[in-house]
Amino acid sequence: MRNLILIYAKPHIDGVSKTRLSKDLNIEDSMRLSKSLLEKNINLVKNSNFNFLLSTSKEEYVDILEKKYGVKTILQRGYDLGSKMYYSIYDGLKHYDSVTIMGADVVDFEKNMLLELESKIKSYDMVVSNTLDGGYSLISLKEAYKTLFIGKTFSHNKVFTELIDSANKINLETYILKRTMDIDDINSLASYIGGIRTKKIYEDEKLIHFSNGSKTFVFYKKESKGSYIDKICNVKYDII
Protein backbone atom coordinates (compact mmCIF):
# COMPACT_ATOMS: atom_id res chain seq x y z
CA MET A 1 0.00 0.00 0.00
CA ARG A 2 1.03 3.57 -0.63
CA ASN A 3 0.42 5.39 2.63
CA LEU A 4 0.60 9.13 3.29
CA ILE A 5 0.80 10.96 6.60
CA LEU A 6 -0.10 14.64 6.77
CA ILE A 7 1.19 16.42 9.87
CA TYR A 8 -0.99 19.45 10.55
CA ALA A 9 1.43 22.22 11.50
CA LYS A 10 1.76 25.94 12.04
CA PRO A 11 4.95 28.04 12.10
CA HIS A 12 6.37 29.09 15.46
CA ILE A 13 5.26 32.70 15.37
CA ASP A 14 3.82 34.68 18.28
CA GLY A 15 0.04 34.59 18.00
CA VAL A 16 0.02 31.64 15.57
CA SER A 17 1.44 28.60 17.33
CA LYS A 18 0.41 27.46 20.81
CA THR A 19 -1.74 30.56 21.38
CA ARG A 20 -3.70 28.92 24.21
CA LEU A 21 -0.53 27.85 25.98
CA SER A 22 1.02 31.30 25.64
CA LYS A 23 -1.85 32.76 27.66
CA ASP A 24 -0.25 31.14 30.71
CA LEU A 25 3.43 30.68 29.80
CA ASN A 26 5.79 33.26 28.37
CA ILE A 27 5.99 33.37 24.58
CA GLU A 28 9.53 31.99 24.44
CA ASP A 29 8.64 28.83 26.34
CA SER A 30 5.41 28.36 24.42
CA MET A 31 7.19 28.60 21.07
CA ARG A 32 9.98 26.31 22.26
CA LEU A 33 7.43 23.69 23.23
CA SER A 34 5.66 23.89 19.88
CA LYS A 35 8.92 23.59 17.96
CA SER A 36 10.09 20.65 20.08
CA LEU A 37 6.91 18.66 19.52
CA LEU A 38 6.82 19.28 15.77
CA GLU A 39 10.47 18.31 15.35
CA LYS A 40 9.92 15.15 17.39
CA ASN A 41 6.99 14.05 15.25
CA ILE A 42 8.70 14.91 11.96
CA ASN A 43 11.67 12.76 12.94
CA LEU A 44 9.36 9.94 13.99
CA VAL A 45 7.50 9.85 10.68
CA LYS A 46 10.66 10.43 8.66
CA ASN A 47 12.04 7.15 10.01
CA SER A 48 8.90 5.16 9.17
CA ASN A 49 7.63 3.52 5.98
CA PHE A 50 5.12 6.30 5.36
CA ASN A 51 5.38 9.10 2.85
CA PHE A 52 4.69 12.36 4.64
CA LEU A 53 4.04 16.05 4.14
CA LEU A 54 3.33 18.99 6.37
CA SER A 55 -0.08 20.57 5.93
CA THR A 56 -0.86 24.12 7.00
CA SER A 57 -3.80 26.50 7.05
CA LYS A 58 -2.45 29.66 5.39
CA GLU A 59 -0.46 30.24 2.20
CA GLU A 60 2.11 32.43 3.95
CA TYR A 61 2.96 29.57 6.31
CA VAL A 62 4.01 27.20 3.51
CA ASP A 63 7.40 28.78 2.76
CA ILE A 64 8.15 29.34 6.45
CA LEU A 65 7.65 25.67 7.29
CA GLU A 66 9.47 24.36 4.21
CA LYS A 67 12.52 26.54 4.87
CA LYS A 68 12.57 25.68 8.56
CA TYR A 69 12.14 21.91 8.34
CA GLY A 70 13.06 20.99 4.77
CA VAL A 71 9.77 19.14 4.36
CA LYS A 72 7.34 19.71 1.49
CA THR A 73 4.35 21.59 2.85
CA ILE A 74 0.91 21.82 1.29
CA LEU A 75 -1.92 24.29 1.83
CA GLN A 76 -5.15 23.03 3.34
CA ARG A 77 -8.39 23.84 1.57
CA GLY A 78 -11.76 24.26 3.23
CA TYR A 79 -13.64 26.73 5.39
CA ASP A 80 -13.25 25.15 8.84
CA LEU A 81 -11.29 22.33 10.49
CA GLY A 82 -13.76 19.62 9.53
CA SER A 83 -13.84 20.56 5.85
CA LYS A 84 -10.06 20.92 5.78
CA MET A 85 -9.66 17.41 7.17
CA TYR A 86 -12.15 16.02 4.67
CA TYR A 87 -10.40 17.60 1.70
CA SER A 88 -7.00 16.53 3.01
CA ILE A 89 -8.21 12.92 2.92
CA TYR A 90 -10.08 13.35 -0.38
CA ASP A 91 -7.18 14.99 -2.22
CA GLY A 92 -4.56 12.68 -0.76
CA LEU A 93 -6.43 9.56 -1.86
CA LYS A 94 -6.00 10.63 -5.48
CA HIS A 95 -2.36 9.57 -5.13
CA TYR A 96 -2.25 7.22 -2.12
CA ASP A 97 -4.14 4.18 -0.85
CA SER A 98 -4.51 5.60 2.66
CA VAL A 99 -4.18 9.06 4.16
CA THR A 100 -3.45 9.74 7.81
CA ILE A 101 -3.84 13.12 9.49
CA MET A 102 -1.90 13.59 12.71
CA GLY A 103 -1.46 16.56 15.00
CA ALA A 104 1.90 18.23 15.50
CA ASP A 105 1.43 18.77 19.24
CA VAL A 106 1.16 15.14 20.42
CA VAL A 107 3.89 14.32 22.89
CA ASP A 108 3.74 10.52 23.02
CA PHE A 109 3.51 9.19 19.48
CA GLU A 110 5.82 6.17 19.23
CA LYS A 111 7.43 4.13 16.47
CA ASN A 112 5.37 1.08 17.43
CA MET A 113 2.17 3.05 16.87
CA LEU A 114 3.16 3.78 13.29
CA LEU A 115 4.02 0.13 12.71
CA GLU A 116 0.63 -0.82 14.14
CA LEU A 117 -1.08 1.80 11.97
CA GLU A 118 0.68 0.48 8.87
CA SER A 119 -0.55 -3.03 9.64
CA LYS A 120 -4.13 -2.25 10.70
CA ILE A 121 -5.05 0.18 7.92
CA LYS A 122 -4.76 -2.73 5.48
CA SER A 123 -7.78 -4.48 6.98
CA TYR A 124 -9.75 -1.75 8.79
CA ASP A 125 -11.72 1.13 7.29
CA MET A 126 -10.50 3.62 9.87
CA VAL A 127 -7.64 3.73 12.36
CA VAL A 128 -7.70 6.40 15.05
CA SER A 129 -5.94 7.43 18.27
CA ASN A 130 -8.04 9.26 20.84
CA THR A 131 -6.66 11.78 23.32
CA LEU A 132 -7.07 12.28 27.04
CA ASP A 133 -9.13 15.44 26.51
CA GLY A 134 -11.81 13.67 24.47
CA GLY A 135 -10.52 14.44 20.99
CA TYR A 136 -8.35 12.48 18.62
CA SER A 137 -4.77 13.04 17.50
CA LEU A 138 -4.59 10.74 14.49
CA ILE A 139 -7.08 9.47 11.94
CA SER A 140 -6.35 7.23 8.96
CA LEU A 141 -8.76 6.39 6.14
CA LYS A 142 -8.85 4.68 2.75
CA GLU A 143 -11.94 6.60 1.62
CA ALA A 144 -13.09 10.15 2.29
CA TYR A 145 -16.37 10.30 4.21
CA LYS A 146 -18.09 13.66 4.53
CA THR A 147 -20.19 12.45 7.44
CA LEU A 148 -17.07 12.14 9.62
CA PHE A 149 -15.98 15.74 9.14
CA ILE A 150 -18.43 18.12 7.48
CA GLY A 151 -20.54 20.10 9.93
CA LYS A 152 -18.65 18.78 12.94
CA THR A 153 -17.44 20.95 15.80
CA PHE A 154 -14.13 20.46 17.58
CA SER A 155 -12.35 21.61 20.77
CA HIS A 156 -14.79 19.87 23.13
CA ASN A 157 -14.62 16.61 25.08
CA LYS A 158 -17.05 14.65 22.88
CA VAL A 159 -15.13 14.91 19.60
CA PHE A 160 -13.89 11.32 19.65
CA THR A 161 -17.25 9.92 20.78
CA GLU A 162 -19.01 11.76 17.95
CA LEU A 163 -16.45 10.45 15.45
CA ILE A 164 -17.05 6.85 16.51
CA ASP A 165 -20.83 7.34 16.43
CA SER A 166 -20.61 8.73 12.90
CA ALA A 167 -18.35 5.88 11.79
CA ASN A 168 -20.71 3.28 13.25
CA LYS A 169 -23.67 4.78 11.40
CA ILE A 170 -21.97 4.07 8.07
CA ASN A 171 -20.69 0.68 9.23
CA LEU A 172 -16.99 1.46 9.23
CA GLU A 173 -14.71 -1.06 10.87
CA THR A 174 -12.55 0.96 13.24
CA TYR A 175 -9.30 0.11 14.97
CA ILE A 176 -8.33 2.26 17.96
CA LEU A 177 -4.64 2.77 18.67
CA LYS A 178 -3.19 3.56 22.08
CA ARG A 179 -4.59 6.72 23.61
CA THR A 180 -2.30 9.74 23.23
CA MET A 181 -1.85 13.19 24.76
CA ASP A 182 -1.71 16.46 22.88
CA ILE A 183 -0.29 19.50 24.65
CA ASP A 184 -2.22 22.60 23.72
CA ASP A 185 -2.65 24.43 27.02
CA ILE A 186 -1.11 24.63 30.49
CA ASN A 187 -3.49 22.00 31.90
CA SER A 188 -2.49 19.34 29.36
CA LEU A 189 1.19 20.17 29.87
CA ALA A 190 0.81 19.73 33.62
CA SER A 191 -1.06 16.45 33.10
CA TYR A 192 1.74 15.14 30.91
CA ILE A 193 4.35 15.92 33.56
CA GLY A 194 2.36 14.94 36.66
CA GLY A 195 -0.21 12.45 35.37
CA ILE A 196 -3.91 12.65 34.61
CA ARG A 197 -4.81 13.40 38.24
CA THR A 198 -2.87 16.68 38.14
CA LYS A 199 -5.02 19.74 38.91
CA LYS A 200 -4.41 23.47 39.17
CA ILE A 201 -4.41 24.54 42.83
CA TYR A 202 -3.12 28.13 42.81
CA GLU A 203 -2.20 30.94 40.43
CA ASP A 204 -0.83 34.45 40.78
CA GLU A 205 0.83 36.96 38.46
CA LYS A 206 4.09 35.00 38.16
CA LEU A 207 3.38 31.37 39.10
CA ILE A 208 0.89 28.58 38.41
CA HIS A 209 0.76 25.70 40.90
CA PHE A 210 -0.47 22.21 39.96
CA SER A 211 -0.62 19.12 42.18
CA ASN A 212 -1.13 15.42 41.51
CA GLY A 213 -1.64 14.62 45.18
CA SER A 214 1.95 13.68 45.93
CA LYS A 215 3.93 16.41 44.16
CA THR A 216 3.36 20.06 43.34
CA PHE A 217 4.51 21.51 40.01
CA VAL A 218 5.15 25.25 39.79
CA PHE A 219 5.20 26.78 36.32
CA TYR A 220 6.80 30.17 35.75
CA LYS A 221 4.97 32.67 33.60
CA LYS A 222 8.18 34.68 33.22
CA GLU A 223 11.89 33.88 33.26
CA SER A 224 12.99 32.82 36.73
CA LYS A 225 16.32 31.72 38.13
CA GLY A 226 16.68 28.24 39.58
CA SER A 227 13.90 26.65 37.54
CA TYR A 228 14.23 23.23 35.95
CA ILE A 229 13.92 22.54 32.24
CA ASP A 230 11.54 19.80 31.23
CA LYS A 231 13.56 17.25 29.25
CA ILE A 232 11.05 17.01 26.42
CA CYS A 233 9.14 20.27 26.31
CA ASN A 234 11.85 22.63 27.58
CA VAL A 235 9.36 24.50 29.75
CA LYS A 236 10.48 25.95 33.06
CA TYR A 237 8.93 24.49 36.19
CA ASP A 238 9.92 23.51 39.72
CA ILE A 239 8.91 20.36 41.58
CA ILE A 240 8.15 20.82 45.26
TrEMBL record:
InterPro entries: Nucleotide-diphossugar_trans (IPR029044), Trfase_1_rSAM/seldom-assoc (IPR018641)
The protein, known as: DUF2064 domain-containing protein
Species name: Citroniella saccharovorans
Source taxonomy: Bacteria, Bacillati, Bacillota, Tissierellia, Tissierellales
